[in-house]
Amino acid sequence: MRIVLVGPPGAGKGTQAQFIATHLSIPKISTGDIFRANVSGGTELGRQAKKYMDRGDLVPDEVTIAMVRDRLAEDDARDGFLLDGFPRNVPQAETLKKILAEWDARLDIVLELFVDEEEVVRRLSGRRTCESCGRIWHVDFDDKQDDICDECGGHLFQRDDDKEEVVRHRLEVYQEQTAPLVQFYEDEGILVRIDATGPVEEVTQRALGALRPQDR
Predict the structure, then answer these.
(1) Residue ranges for the binding site?
(2) Which residues are known to be catalytic?
(3) What 3-state class would DSSP assign to 15?
(4) Cα(162)–Cα(128) distance, rounded to whole angstroms?
(5) From 213's CA, which of 5, 85, 146, 165 has a CA 20 to 30 Å away?
(6) What global pTM score does this model have?
């Protein structure tokens, strides 16, 4: 099965991607993993990407697409995969469609994890990170009333990208870039929207339930 997973920051894409991929015995492929593999492996594409990453710039579409194409051509992805973080826009989606068509393949389903904006803000802005061990706590979910890590006694702090104003900006950017992508896949007739609120296990079951009609 060939799946694309989309959703805003804080929707739990990484967690759900791993559960779904493991359940279906297909590789979970994320752009972050691909970038790191190419950079650490010293590939030509990795060297190109690193120039942009070192400057804090976005890696251009052509480099990202080339990396994804190479990854999808590997043996473990021949019979299926789950893409997390790609495509991010309509041009990337159109290119992915062409790549798969060259291999006489197509996407089976696109899962959109939907979470209310205020819930995303609560999830992300409530996170606190231990400066000593890196453990992440949540002021609501872990009932943290102090700024001390229960694991190591280190000091907890709020990362800049978890601050409310930054989270809301990230959501604005997501909506600008991804709303057309969601519409693209809805027009393709392969988009399924999943309510990503509630316990992780419940969200996973909703996602697997949506996949069952496809996995026949």
Answers:
(1) 10-15, 31, 36, 57-59, 85-88, 92, 127, 159, 170, 198
(2) 13, 88, 127, 159, 170
(3) helix
(4) 8
(5) 85
(6) 0.84
